[in-house]
Amino acid sequence: ECREMDSTSFRSFVDRTPSTTGELRIPTIFPDEHVSVRCDNCRCRLQMGKTFDATLVSTNFRLLVVRAVEQQSDVPRRMRLHDERVSFPLCDIFSLRYADAAHGGDGNGLGGALSPFRANLRRSKKGTEKSTEKELKQFKPLTTSLSSMEIISCLKVYLKDMRVLFIDLRNAASASNLANHLLHFSRPPRADRLPVGGGEERSRKVPFTDRLSWEEEMRRLIPKERQSMWRVVDLRAETIHADATSYPPTVVVCAGLSLPDVREGTHSWEGGRFPVWVYAWKGTVLMRSGLPISSSSAAVTQRKFEDRIAGTHDSQAVPHVIRLDGQEIALEKIGSAFEKLHKICAVDNSARAHRYGKVWPTRVAETGWLQAVTSVLQTAADTVSRLVDHEESVLLQEGEGRDVSAVVSSLAQVCLDKQARRMDGLKRLVEKEWISLGHPFSRRLLSVEGAPFCPVFLLFLDALYQLVEMYPTQFEYTSTALVALWDLVLTGTAGTVSCEDVTEQMQLGRTSSSFPLDAHFKEPVTLLFGSVPFAAASLVTRTGRSVPMMADIIRPPTSAANVKLWNECYLRWQPEAVIKGGGPLLSVWSLDRVMEEQQEEMGVRWKMTIGTIDHQMISSCFPYSSPHDDDPVVGHSERPSIGSITSLATLQINRETDYEDYGAPTPISSPSVSIQTPTVPVVRYHSGSITVSGDGAVAALPLSPNSMESRPTSIPVRQAPPVPPKTFSRSYV
């Protein structure tokens, strides 16, 4: 049954032993958290996993799923603050769908252990997919509160991280209360209704909101002889901040502009976002602003800004303006593309997954998400080219200058600044471009004020992932770290990435940082944040026995053919996309073994060691979901078709693939890792042996393929004894 639960039943531990009053004691982790609804006698299924009996407890911040019978999980707990395997932040809910009592009978496949999965699977094999689609439509979107008299039988909770929680409520009384509660609290009216993390530091100063932070950044990037051309302006002290509240209290502007000019600038660009300095490359600068307002008085101020900025360039040239209001990267387009991507990635039954999988490349292309990623990468490439090749200053303009300009500016700095490719540099970049300069995280990602979900920050992380994949030896952090950052933002607990702007952060005291990520995540997940290829390239370069492998500048891809779907982020919960016995962990483990075995020959001491891992426990979905298919619902007996999601996954990494089905000879049976890329070393798990392309010895990991002749060297893989994945660790000698 559903009933109100008093907040005094909270404890600092999970006590699943029934008390004399039959209460269930759960932990409280947020201030002002209280239980609103409790539902007993529920049956749940997360994605396409096993069905289990559970009690649902919903607070004003999260939904907890307490299993009736505890089960050992192969998946480690990732977050420190709460267990994301059983605790779901309400601000992470993307949409809700429900089936009423009329569509919840046994005759429609909802009887037994959530049998619509099995029923749909049988029908999909017979080819009658219309009946399957009809059943899917029986779940109606929940957009307004339900009547207390309405009886619902099932509820689907779609999360923004692509998970789906299926809840059978036929044996729970007043299930509509739970549905209404989830709907209401998943759309908080204000940012102060979001959870406050346990590590909140109300006295912490947000970087790049004071003069000292900006002056330090200017000294780091601007040549000494040019630093006098720019100055830090305190908008609050000069009573200008009231007209530009989305800016931090201090910004960097051209020294030739007077305070009255800056004050006029707040009325000459949309949102009061006049051009501000964000980065310098030798004699050129990168700036951001809103779109210029069309009026005669505003035009005078705009020309004055252009002339003063031109005076900072050797050729006295006005900055090259890049407008970011194109169709491919408009906010509406980004939101729509993600919604379509969510539909094909957050799949809740195997029949639908199989149907999408048959024509997977087409389905992905139709979403428009990869086109948006390609578009921002192309714009970043144009920005880099203007700054470096053409020696022009660049001004990025869009709307109020708070969204796509942050994406392009961040990507350009990652390409030009080696520091931004390190974890500390990524922290500084996010704090400057996203937090300080006012990206509206609360509205774009956390649905505050009922705003539509528009994951601009995810677009940046996806584009950054493309660079990490292309240049793995150039980045200290990995794709796993980017996924962790995305998941952390969706919890709403990191204060600086959960507000509208810096002004709101200071007013609410939400100043806790999302960095370092190690403070928010537990081992062994944190061991996957550091890049083994980066460490190996850095070590080999320091030996002096190789060409330098650490580049000053990297170039973003400009072709859509070089952009791929971020499987680790979008498909980590889908069984059909799982690569058993492979994935990033096994790849870096193999490279780690190579470096360990070759350190004496290279004359170096390898300090990074992952340790031993169990190949049967590890897959491409580690550490998010289990690779085991114990449930007969998951998977199909038929062969995957060419171009399907299953075939694309298994052809990448799978020792059990029957290669003859794809018209290729059967490869060597033993596992291997291939390092093959047109520009920098990449580690991929394939089958056979460890292949290192280069100039003879291990030092042969060239930055450019044209710099030397490629001569592969094969080294057999040393197999590790099976050990649970939790036991692997990184040691430092």
UniProtKB/TrEMBL annotation:
Q: Which PROSITE patterns does the UniProt record give? A: PPASE_MYOTUBULARIN
**GO CC terms:** cytoplasm; membrane
Bias-annotated ranges (Polar residues): 704-713
- Pfam families with a match to the protein in the record: 3-PAP, Myotub-related
InterPro entries registered for this protein in UniProt: MTMR12-like_C, Myotubularin, Myotubularin-like_Pase_dom, Prot-tyrosine_phosphatase-like
Q: Which residues form the Myotubularin phosphatase domain?
A: 208-570
Q: Tell me the protein's name.
A: Myotubularin phosphatase domain-containing protein
Q: Where is this region: Disordered?
A: 704-733
Instruction: Indicate the family of this protein.
Output: Belongs to the protein-tyrosine phosphatase family. Non-receptor class myotubularin subfamily.
From the broadest rank down, the organism's phylogenetic lineage runs: Eukaryota, Metazoa, Ecdysozoa, Nematoda, Chromadorea
Species annotation: Pristionchus mayeri
Question: Which domain of life does this protein belong to?
Answer: Eukaryota
GO terms, biological process: phosphatidylinositol dephosphorylation
